[in-house]
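Render this sequence as a predicted structure.
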Amino acid sequence: MDFIPKPKGKSLVESLEFLTREVNRVLSLVETKQRIANKKTITRPPFPLYETDQGDTENPIKPPPPVTKKIDLICIGVSTGGPNALAEVLPNLPERVGCPILIVQHMPATFTKTLSEHLSKRCHLKVKEAENGDLLEPNMVYIAPGGKHMVLSKRALKYALVMNEEPPVNSCRPSVDVLFKSVAQNFTGTVLAIILTGMGEDGAEGVQALKTKECRSIAQERQSCVVYGMPRAIINRGLADETIPLKDIAPRIEKLCKVL
């Protein structure tokens, strides 16, 4: 019988990473066994199991365009390797970045609340698991709850977060594309879109939608990724304005937010 062993990480972040990998491993085994038994493709769970072997047609990154407008909203998409990546980026941001930060981390339900609480203790910014109806406030970090999509809606002069349990997108719920597309549709202002380490291509279509509005985009560079799939997807489509090592992303965010 397959089972998920007790976490062995020395820290909460390492334990979350371990649990995510083990859940993925067990679900992958279950999927394989069911395929053999049923001889048909089954529906994948609402978060990725593995990285597919894709060709790398990476486009060269052009010099980033000059920043002439204030960043009004930061959107981050991340999957495999995300807890450690977020633990590198968020605690190194100052207390005031001047705008809200929305994050989609591919994780099952319950894990995201624990992750949010852990990050909040380490960060100058306040971090919380997003709840239905949350109104966006500057210098707040909202992490999409596991198992639910998070979308942005406009309410009079405010922006609110809405959760739903619509079908997975890119085999993911929450999905980066779902959030980013809702921001492109409803948000007025300049968005900084950041794609960090992760499997698959979730986020690529979302960044493409944001690029029809005022958007600057950053992809995590290959060497610092646990899995390069998601950053590679936006680079291959020519959507990344900059590609940056993980350790340099927080300073870059701070600089972009202070540009004016």
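Summary. The chain has seven helices and nine strands. Residues 73-258 form a domain with the Rossmann fold fold (CATH 3.40.50.180).
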